[in-house]
Amino acid sequence: MYLIRRIYRVKPGEARRAATLIAAIGSAYEEAGTRSPSRVYFNSGTTPGEKNIVVMEWTDESLESPYRSERIRVEGLDDISAQLREISLGSEIEFWELWTDEKAL
């Protein structure tokens, strides 16, 4: 089992708007049956830490290429993604293997 974290850096003052868009993207993937439920969190300056950051994370049983031929295209994301690109300064992705009892030494 893996934890996938997508970290977005957004323009100042846009973290809450970006979080709304990113949550909608996560919901669309979940409704299409292609992703587990996601969690979105952000800092627009109301908490300590780096500002203008939005994170979406979800789990998956395996890591697969987004370029695989059998990938299901999720409809309805073009407009949301375009809005996110307007306020995004960039993003990165992290992959973490989740510890389970069966992996214990």
Mind explaining what this structure looks like?
- The protein is an alpha+beta fold and 105 residues long.
- The chain is 26% helix and 30% strand.
- The protein contains 2 helices and 4 strands, in the order βαββαβ.
- It has helices at 15-31, 78-87, and strands at residues 2-10, 39-43, 53-60, 88-97.
- A 4-stranded antiparallel β-sheet has the order 2-3-1-4.
- α1 (15-31) packs antiparallel against α2 (78-87).
- The radius of gyration is 15 Å and the shape is globular.
- The two termini are 17 Å apart.
- The model has no long low-confidence stretch (mean pLDDT 94).
Secondary-structure map:
Blueprint lengths: L1 E9 L4 H17 L7 E5 L9 E8 L17 H10 E10 L8
Antiparallel strand pairs: 1-3, 1-4, 2-3
Helix pairs in contact: 1-2
- In sequence order, what are the helices and strands, one letter per element? EHEEHE
| Secondary-structure-derived class | alpha+beta
Biggest sheet, strands in spatial order? 2-3-1-4
**What's the story with the biggest beta sheet?**
4 strands, antiparallel
Task: Name the overall outline.
Answer: globular
% residues in beta strands: 25-35%
Which stretches are low in confidence, meaning pLDDT under 50 for 5 or more residues running? none
C-alpha-based Rg, rounded:
15 Å
Number of strands: 4
Instruction: Please bin the fraction of helical residues.
Output: 25-40%
User: Span between N and C termini?
Assistant: 17 Å
Average pLDDT rating: 94
Tell me the number of helical segments per DSSP (H or I, 4 or more residues long): 2
